[in-house]
Amino acid sequence: MHAMTIEPGDSAAAPVASNREPDPVRARLLGPLELHAGGADRAPTTPKLLQLLAMLLIRPGKTVHVDSLVHELWNDAPPRSVRRTLHTYVHHLRRHLDPGGDGGILVTGPPGFRLDVDPAMVDVSEFQRLHRLGRDLLDEGDNTAAAQAFRTALDLWSGPPLANIHCGPTLAAYTVYLLEHRRNARDLWIEAEIRSGRHREMLGVLRSLATANPFDETLHGQLIRALGLSGRRSDALAAYHWLRTRLEDELGVEPCAELRELHRELLSEGNPIR
């Protein structure tokens, strides 16, 4: 290994101040909450501080009203000195996010507080962007590109949203909202894959998902379609009968109209599955 020599005037001889912009603040909500700033994860571990941070991150760059924060943190049983306690939490969170004490991203702005964070740096925003892109591509008939957009969106998830947060009423509702969007993205991803001719490749995924979600008629319908398109009509009929029996025995309902129509198509040899 050759020794490195430094010539007079070489920039390595003396450190030069960097003009590089500081790393942007990035946050993850699609899984355990993370907030990265200055190359470190700044998310606190104290439950109430983490909950407060989550409330600010679901509306990045916007002021969250004090009353909304109080409702989330204490619901209907706030402490007697709730405003003082909240300001104490904000103080500790600000110090945690900005240990250098030079301003920081947690800003007080009546009637509440905000995180001075670019919404595009929060993974929820990227998920929503890719979800919209996938829908647009699917509407345009570009099924392969749509499937890729939905796959990329789903890959942003590392687990249940806000998995490390003790959620109050607002955050609990927000997690339900996110999970419904994830379910929709999953269904549209599968639809795009089937439309692009990858029905055989999707059979393993669909069987696994259908087993884990025994009453999800959309998933079971996609499995039945994929089996029919793959030339496995008897397996498709068996999957339909299994679902119908489960629905009738445990919920007392019939399969939806779309599934019943799919069943009629399966019984008609000359009528292709769509």
Measured by DSSP, the beta-strand proportion falls in: 5-15%
Which architecture of the domain at 26-120 does the CATH hierarchy give at level 2?
A: Orthogonal Bundle
* Helix and strand element order: EEEHEHHEEHHHHHHH
User: How many DSSP H or I helices?
Assistant: 10
The residue ranges in which pLDDT falls below 50 over 5 or more consecutive positions are 1-18
- Radius of gyration, taken over Cα atoms and rounded to an integer in Å: 26 Å
What's the arrangement of strands in the largest beta sheet?
1-2-3
**Going by CATH, what is the homologous superfamily of the domain at 26-120?**
Winged helix-like DNA-binding domain superfamily/Winged helix DNA-binding domain
Q: N- to C-terminal separation?
A: 65 Å
DNA-binding region: 17-117
Organism: Amycolatopsis thailandensis
Pfam families: BTAD, Trans_reg_C
GO molecular function: DNA binding
